[in-house]
Amino acid sequence: MSKKGRVLVAMSGGIDSTVTAMMLHEEGYEVVGITMKTWDYASSGGEKKETGCCSLDSINDAREVAVNMGFPHFIIDIREEFGDYVIDNFVDEYLGGRTPNPCVLCNTHIKWSALLKRADAMDCEFIATGHYAKVQELNGRRFVQKAKDSHKDQSYVLWGLSQECLERSRFPLGPYTKPEVRQMAADFGYTDLAKKGESYEICFVPDNDYRAFLDRRVPELADSVAGGNFVDISGEIIGTHRGYPYYTIGQRKGLGQAFGKPMYVTEIKPDSNTVVLGGVDDLIRNGMIVGQTNIMKYDRLPANLEATTQIRYNDPGSLAVLNQNDLGEVQVEFLSNVRGVAPGQSAVFYEGDDVVGGGIIQSSLRS
Q1: What 8-state DSSP symbol labels residue 301?
Q2: Measured CA distances, 211 to 14, 42, 247, 343 (Å)
């Protein structure tokens, strides 16, 4: 066995995970590649060609690199587990009037669990992925830290990782920028890989149309929720809509009718099939309740902790005061007003580049 140790590398066939495997191999780790089959898009009835980590081409690309580099590669099928957990949650959240983030759920509950299970079976001490992030340790606690490349940083989607996961996880790309990673691929002799594009879509919704996905997944949905009311902030009915699951907080386009001025979805009420519309300032919130929390950097949040709080991916974040109750929920009080707080989305707390922890937005607060 290598002195560096044996590491199981999640290989999607894309440039980031491939360079991760090559880097660790060159550094002297005993690399084992693994590709997880999470989703078969054809089974959803979609028309777009299967792409990304689930496609046959991507699986073959990962295997080819492993063969060329001389380390073993395995394919595991976790479609049933993925579908039962991630996709059912995705649908249930929209039916509950919330806006889910399936990538966070997949990382926390599916991919890392599957990787650790296989790592143990294959005597691998570590697991590694192509995420742009870092792992740091302080006072016996491990936590995620932002990557060097602010445009590619993926710390936001990793807030749910446990201490056990962090102890065994390696993110080799954290200290590098995307252009540097592309150059490394070219230096390894993979010029085509260095030019490979990226997908920013949800893997099981590659056409990026979640509404059509809901219709395919729940065929009776459209008829069951059709004819709900749009109401204004005062509660006055101002129109009808196609059904509350087809709208998200902050949405302005695609409302299906004109109101004479810009209108935004400010609240979704699934019990009455009502969608509340207002002006842009009606999206302002000064706080929120965050549940299902995972605190990384501390055993428990210090009282009145000031932290930059990010409420969606690519959100620059806003300074807030955090307090955690006995149920583990975090009450967030923004120091300046924030627009578009959406229940179901992840809230991630930062001290500088350090991820303090995160959770799922339960409700927004407005004084």
Answers
A1: P
A2: 27, 17, 9, 18
The separation between CA 43 and the C-alpha centre of its own chain, rounded to angstroms, equals 23
Spatial CA neighbour of 275 closest among 231, 236, 234, 341: 231
| 189-231 tens-digit pLDDT | 988 888 877 766 788 887 889 999 999 999 999 999 999 999 9
Tell me how far apart the alpha carbons of residues 115 and 130 are, in angstroms, rounded to a whole number: 13
Query: Terminal CA-to-CA distance of the chain, rounded, Å?
Result: 61
pLDDT of the residue at 366: 87
Other C-beta atoms within 10 Å of 77: how many? 11
Sign, Cα dihedral of 170, 176, 178, 183: negative
Q: Indicate the burial class of 305 (C-beta count within 10 angstroms; 0-12, 13-18, 19 or more).
A: middle
Tokens of 136: 């740091």
Q: What average pLDDT is seen over the chain?
A: 92
Residue 337: the pLDDT is 92
Active site residues: 106, 203
Q: 258: buried, middle or exposed (CB in 10 Å: 19+, 13-18, 0-12)?
A: exposed
DSSP 25-86: HHHT-EEEEEEEE---GGGGT--SPP-GGGSHHHHHHHHHHHHHHT--EEEEE-HHHHIIII
Element of type H or E holding 88: helix 88-95
Domain architecture of the chain: domains with CATH: 6-130+172-194 (3.40.50.620), 225-278 (2.30.30.280), 283-365 (2.40.30.10)
Q: What token pair was written down for 72? A: 């073993």
Q: Taking Cα atoms as reference points, which of 355, 336, 359 lies closest to residue 141?
A: 355
The pTM of this model reads 0.93
